Amino acid sequence: MAGSPPSASPLAPQPPQPSSVASGAVTDASAAAAAAAKETRARDDAARLAKAERARVAKARHDAALARVAEADCVAAVAQAERDAADARLRAALARADLERAATQPLPGSDDDTSDASGDGDHVSVAGDATHLRDALLQHEAAALINLHAQAVAVQNIRLLVPLTLDVSSTFYGRWRESLLHVVGRYSLESHVLSDVTAPTSPDWVRMDCVVRTWITGTITDALADTVIEPGNTARTSWLAIESQFRGNRETRALHLDAEFRNFKQGDQDITTYCRKLKSMADALRDLDEPVQDRTLVLNLLRGLNAWDYYQFDDLLTSEERTIRKKVRGIMEKEIALIMAVYLEKTVSI
Hints:
- By secondary structure, the protein is an all-alpha fold.
- It is built from 14 helices and no strands.
- The chain has helices spanning 18-103, 111-118, 121-153, 173-186, 191-194, 203-218, 222-228, 235-247, 250-262, 271-287, 294-304, 307-311, 313-316, 319-349.
- It is flat and about 110 Å long.
């Protein structure tokens, strides 16, 4: 009808009801709270796991430290036991020496005793003082030897003392030999590698020979050990086998090394590496009883230098190498220049 209000269309959007809006807001808030709670729990779990991992690592380190302490205590106890046994042997040896000395004294009332009594009393006193002094020195030396051997037994890593590992193809046998001799001499064990005298019935000698054998094996590669080490060898036998390996075919090795030394060129190496390798070859030839004279070393160094490095030599040398440079310059001025002058004169005349 004309006076009635227009009716709403059934397809027109209805305004949101207040109750549905509030319900949606509550749902979003609940979801956000749940997500926040979940994130908090995840952080707490991660923190607990990290704390547990730190505790586990700390416990592992603590246990490892305790194990090392126990191992060190065990080694110290063994060394102390060996030292006590050596002290006991020393006391027994001194007691036997006293008994033997007493047996050599003349009996009271004998002719020797009478003649001695009638002799010079001061001479007897001086002789007795010398004997006591000698005994005291021997006892001090024995105690020092026992202490050194105990320290040698306690060495755990020989490569800290001998930082060279000898291989079949190594060219530094001489330096390895000197380094090992310094170590065995430091602990008064050089007789185990330099002397053919053995004492297989002495527990102390056998023990220290095992120590030296272990040091030798620990400073060579497996390939070299397979070649020179045999079961039951003494330290002296292993030492001689290694010496034979590097010096037995000395002439052949010296021939090949000398050829390599004289034909060695710098190439793409820097000047420091080139000089170091050339010096190493010279040292190896010296170990083979074929020493290289300084003049020969300098001439070979100059011969193998690249042209640029030859003219820029001073800019690349250390203070030690500059000293070599001065020797080079002296040889060039005193000897090479004269030879070149004669050569040029002959060339011009031709």
